[in-house]
Amino acid sequence: MTDQHYRLTNVRPWGADPVDIAIKDGHIADIRPAAAATAAGDVDGGGLLALPGFINTHSHVDKSWWGQPWVSYTYSDHPTVEGWIANERAQRSKYNIPNASSTAAVLREFLRHGTTATRTHIDIDLDIGLRGLECVKAALKEVGDAIQVKTVAFPQDGVLRRPGVLKLLDEAAQAGVDYIGGLDPGTIDRDVEGQLDELFDIAVTRGVGLDLHLHDFGSLGVYEFRQVVRRTIDAGLQGRVNISHGFVLGTLPQAVQAEIVEGLAEAGVSWTTVAMGGTAPLPWQGMQKHSVPLGLGTDGIRDLWSPFGDGDLLRIAFQFARLHGLRHDDKLIAAVELATRGGAHFVGRNVHDLVVGARADIVLLDAENVPDALVRCPPRRLVLSGGRVVARNGEILV
Fold first, then answer.
1. Cα gap 240→236, rounded to integer Å
2. E-state strands within the chain
3. Secondary structure class of 180 (helix, strand, coil)
4. pTM for the whole thing?
5. DSSP codes of every residue in 210-225
6. What is the pLDDT of residues 121-144, one digit of tens each?
7. How far is CA 280 from the centre of its chain?
8. Eight-state DSSP code of residue 162
9. What is the C-alpha separation between 108 and 178, in angstroms, rounded?
């Protein structure tokens, strides 16, 4: 339907009064109060709640074994990042990870739950080279333009400690990835300055962004944040650098949190979280006050790191609300905003909302209002991506 002009009738954007949304060439062309009369080609919204498509700002679609036979989790009851990395490396070939079929399956699951755009990290290492990137490209051909994807070449097994990985990251940047990644420079490579020097050099030389997984705690974690902020400013990469996870931030004294948030704002560094249970709440309202982009993501989904996850970003917003103790309507709505229009920055959009001119990514749910949708996470009744109906009542149409 992306080349057609039609109306999505009788829907309630963000729980407001019913409207008809005119869609043309994949975008929202007009929004008017719902009319009694309908025309041929109209899609009846049935008075359902309408939200913008969900944006998953941190995923790993190349790692998933979604759609494959069940894989029992066998790693330690006391896992570490280093141990997870080793366990994945030891087992992934047995389960044919990465492969295009599983990647396409998890992308379709995203669509079924209303996610119409994602930023995904794709493992790049000496064993598989750029094969993960090739699998993601092949999977995207299967689903067409139903889901828009920004890619991160991610050195899960380290950068400096694995000679040859920097060359692969540079090749990935030249092959068209949007970002290159990094991982715990202090504990994985044991050289904060060395890893960041190399990654920022590639980013500047090849004109790509940076998305860095930072898990380190204590003063080391704070030092890494400060280094990223300073180097972003020095490199002129404002608006093109992101910190993923950064679990230590919520554990810091308020004065240090405030300093870090102000630094992020000055450097234009964004932040993504998966709202993992057991972690410390983020100073998310301070981030919003200082216009630091904050996105929600699923992380891995049914992979060798964890059997959990189903790709439903509304459930991640629910987790975020529970983790941060949100109860009032305005705060519950804010959690859903993070999962939808708040994710625009992370997929290169100036606007992602139910407004004229925006891409027609629309999700319909049977809910009284936005807080009701968050706490119940009802099934998605209809999912439009770029004006195209891609899922209806849980059935994938692509």
1. 9
2. 5-13, 19-24, 27-33, 43-44, 49-52, 54-59, 115-123, 148-154, 179-183, 209-214, 241-245, 269-273, 294-296, 362-365, 380-385, 388-392, 395-396
3. strand
4. 0.96
5. EEEEE---HHHHHHHH
6. 999 999 999 999 999 999 999 998
7. 20
8. S
9. 22
